């Protein structure tokens, strides 16, 4: 059908490795708190690295949220994450007609 499935906010809250075992996902979307903490907390960087390695071994891609600087993007690339979402690429956008668009 051409659909791909992603696990959002992986590693936080109710998402877990159990979902990787039971479902056929294409992409793991890292929780933004891991990405934000990757420069200040060594454990965040190590968690991202291990998730990236696990994803690669399962044939999955990894997407990082909250990528705001080229430095963040480059550091994520070094540890195996090559898809990004965040202000570096675009600020948050509203869809036409949403939230009282005055057009």
Helix-strand topology string: EHEHHEHE
The largest beta-sheet arranges its strands as 1-2-3-4
| Beta-strand residue percentage | 5-15%
In helices, the fraction of residues equals 25-40%
Cα-based radius of gyration, to the nearest Å: 15 Å
Briefly note the structural class of the backbone: alpha/beta
**Could you say which overall geometry the principal axes of the C-alpha atoms support?**
globular
Parts with pLDDT < 50 across at least 5 consecutive residues: none
The domain count comes to 1
The overall average pLDDT, rounded, is 84
Number of helices: 4
Q: Major sheet, described briefly?
A: 4 strands, parallel
State the separation between the terminal residues, measured CA to CA.
36 Å
**DSSP, total strands:** 4
Topology at a glance:
Elements: E1 6-10, H1 17-22, E2 27-30, H2 32-37, H3 42-58, E3 61-64, H4 70-78, E4 83-84
Parallel strand pairs: 1-2, 2-3, 3-4
Short description:
By secondary structure, this protein is an alpha/beta fold. The protein has helices at 17-22, 32-37, 42-58, 70-78, and strands at 6-10, 27-30, 61-64, 83-84.
What does this structure look like?
The N and C termini lie far apart (36 Å). This protein has helices spanning 17-22, 32-37, 42-58, 70-78, and strands at 6-10, 27-30, 61-64, 83-84. It is of the alpha/beta class and 103 residues long. The mean pLDDT is 84. A four-stranded parallel sheet has the order 1-2-3-4. The relative contact order is 0.15. Strand 3, helix 4 and strand 4 (83-84) form a beta-alpha-beta unit. It has one domain.
